Amino acid sequence: MTSRRSTVGVAAAGGLLVLALAVAVFASPSGRVTTPLDPASTAGDGTRALADLLRADGVTVRTSIAVPAPGSPVTVLVLDDRLARVQRADLLAWVDRGGSLVVTDPGSALHPGADVDGGAGPAFGRWPRGTCAIDRLAAIDGLDELELEDDLAYPLGPEDRGCFGDGRRAFVLERAQGQGRVTALGGPSPFLNRNLDRAGNAGLALALLRRDDRREVVVLQSDLLGGDKTLAQLVPTRVWMALAQLGVAFLALGWWRSRRLGAPVLEDDPVTLPGSGLVVAAGALAARSGHAAHNAARLRDDARRHLAHQLGVAESTPLADLDALACARLGMPSGTVGALLDGPLPTDDDGLVAYAIRLDRLRQEVS
Predict the structure, then answer these.
(1) Fewest C-beta in 10 Å: which of 24, 26, 53, 280?
(2) Distance between CA atoms of 279 and 262, rounded to whole angstroms?
């Protein structure tokens, strides 16, 4: 029964492990693990549709962790600012030398509205163009409103130009920096797959990213070796799924193995015999063997060893010395213990039992 249960348990554990690994491998149909705002992701929060839209209009789109060389005729797009400090510093230096940067992360240190007092306000739903001081956006007919989610409208600084706002705050900000410029949005929602075909979102993307003198867009991503991501963020989601399923499989196996089949088996407690009873039983057993004198001698030798141990002397101590020490401790007349340990041995069963009882009493008194 136990062998059969062990075999079934191993088979069940193996099956659960294979199932967990299979789900982990096939959880993501594509070989590439995608994240929100990823230009390769077709999920609702990805930006694959934005990349396809730009390519269809003749714009080259690529992702990179390296800042373009100074003077490169490209537009850099930062969708999610998880850049390393070195990347961010190199990017700002590139903008100073004439680069064009578009930022959609409202929490980024690259966002020009982050250093303007007054605070940002919410921007969501159908968001009208309103006041627009960015020429290339104001010149587009039909770009009257955007479809936004939980985005922000930032206050305009003295050096900022804005669009899709009221003149004090705007969803789109643009600021000159050195020889270049930074264009920032109050959120990435117009560029998401689920929103790109709504209202004027696609027109905004083309107006900001497609320029005659810059027909390439570089989506700058974090350098994983030097970025700001934690170790947990670098582990793909399907790996966490596999670990979670293995944990569930382990708990299920532990529960299955801990089941009790049938009622508990009651076991009788062992009978505990007192020391004196054990001695009497040993004496009776020896008596039944028919060698009373031999058995008595063995009991006497054992009692003598026990007496020497209790008195703290060697087993080879002369009997006279043992007698003197034992009688002094017990307050007995001298020679009492020596007579018991050196006297004549019993020759019948009754005498053996009586002799065993006397030896046991001596052991108890000395102890």
Answers:
(1) 26
(2) 42
